[in-house]
Design brief:
Length: 204
């Protein structure tokens, strides 16, 4: 049991590192789209021309950045949870609800990924391109979009297996650490660390 637990820990650490990289890529795409839009506005106002595709490219960047960051948000337990009644339930029952939330997320995401992949595959088969001056082959942004969903499916499957093992063995703490609602103490600790980093960066 201990060896399987350590294996899950290593796999989750790897998933966290790769998901963090995906979130950074998504963030970079968002920043790049913002810069492109700013340049487009400046060029249109002062130089008399525009890039002719900033809105289209920013739409692709927005969709891709969201899908590539979803796995990291899930691993950080950053997804929105309504916990008005949750906090009043017994600990073991809330652990079951945490596990159930992963199952529900998995069902939803599996459907979403399946149909998104169908859309990208159809665009590939039809050689579809955007109805714009850029004429972007639609399978490229759609494919990158599906990659993000696919990676989240893998991460979610890993989390669900780990949570299921923990639920069967009664390891409530592991479930809470993996997919439970973040506590006030955890939120405060994160804010304190963020504030400390800001202070250190201002000093340097």
């Amino acid at each position: 049991m201990g060896s399987s637990s350590s294996l899950f820990v290593r796999l989750l650490r790897l998933a966290h590192a790769l998901s963090l990289g995906g979130a950074w890529v998504g963030g970079a795409l968002t920043v790049a789209s913002v810069l492109l839009i700013c340049f487009d506005i400046f060029a249109r106002k002062f130089l008399g021309f525009n890039t002719g595709g900033a809105d289209e490219l920013s739409g692709y960047a927005f969709a891709i950045s969201i899908s590539w960051a979803m796995a990291y948000v899930l691993l950080q337990r950053g997804n929105v949870r309504v916990d008005a009644l949750y906090l009043r339930f017994p600990l073991r029952f809330t652990a079951f609800l945490d596990w159930l939330s992963l199952v529900a997320m998995g069902v939803f995401l599996a459907h979403l990924t399946y149909y998104a992949a169908q859309v990208a595959g159809m665009s590939w088969e039809m050689n579809a391109a955007s109805n714009s001056l850029l004429g972007v082959p639609m399978w490229i942004p759609q494919g990158l979009w599906v990659v993000g969903f696919g990676w989240m499916c893998l991460v979610l499957a890993l989390m669900l297996v780990r949570a299921s093992v923990a639920l069967v063995t009664g390891d409530i703490a592991a479930i809470k650490d993996l997919c439970g609602v973040r506590t006030v103490e955890e939120e405060a600790s994160d804010e304190a660390e963020s504030g400390a980093r800001i202070v250190e960066s201002e000093k340097s």
